[in-house]
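Re: How this chain folds, sequence and tokenised backbone to follow

Filed under: protein folding, tokenised backbone structure, sequence and structure records.

Contents: The amino acid chain and a row of whole-number tokens, matched residue for residue.

Body of memo: The sequence and its backbone structure tokens, given next.
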Amino acid sequence: MTLTTLVIGGCAASREAAIAAALTAGAGQDATTALILEGLPDGVSRFGTEQHSPPLNIIRIAPGCLCCTGNLIMRVTLNRLLRHPPSRLFVSLATATHREQIRFFFTQAPYDQLMSLTDDLMI
């Protein structure tokens, strides 16, 4: 099961800083980690040029509601990502507007067998 954490609120830089702190605090050296980051960074991305060990799988998707207009994009992205599932997945969202719908989406088949939701990181 891929441990999945929603990172919600603040600006893109704040969400990326929260993810970086969580990676430093809790990831083992052999844990594979993927990031789905909504939108473009506002300035220089914390994950743009740094080398990470182990390497991060970073996926940027267009800004917009992932349960409404971005539903197909989220499904395709998750399906591709989960073919070789990471140990950890962080999903960065700009707002908590549809947080419950997104959490519900992740608990439906087939994702309920592939992902385990953790507590959200609220910025």
About this structure: Helices lie at 12-26, 71-81, 99-106. The chain has a mean pLDDT of 83. The chain is about 30% helix and 25% strand.
